[in-house]
């Protein structure tokens, strides 16, 4: 892979619209990107520096009135590597580490009532995430295609998990176990 997922997210946001680090933080927060990436606030500038050193972004000198904020722009090389990396990530399935499956694989260690309570708790948290994602998506309407697809895919996965969990804790699908 030519770019890490975090590098691709930051570069993709810059390709979408030239921005400075604070703008990137706002977009990452507003779109809920931290739900599916490992981009911390402090890592944004680190990623920008890496991308700049590799020639994938550039930032003309900021005017004095801009309080030193450098607006980053994608280079042609940045657009090319982002395209190649994005296509590879979309086309090829990759294993995703899932701590939930590690817990379930150790089911013999758990008493059935404790396991059921843990699943019910998870069901409530999944429902809360679905609600939060739906609210974030509707608050930003109309959404650009990339954001719309991310929200749609995320909701599909969470709804599938909600259905699976609801079957296990024997509550109506989509219901909350409070």
From TrEMBL:
InterPro entries: Tscrpt_reg_PadR_N (IPR005149), WH-like_DNA-bd_sf (IPR036388), WH_DNA-bd_sf (IPR036390). Transmembrane segments: none annotated. It comes from Nocardia fusca. Residues 10-82 form the Transcription regulator PadR N-terminal domain. This is Helix-turn-helix transcriptional regulator. PANTHER family: TRANSCRIPTIONAL REGULATOR YQJI.
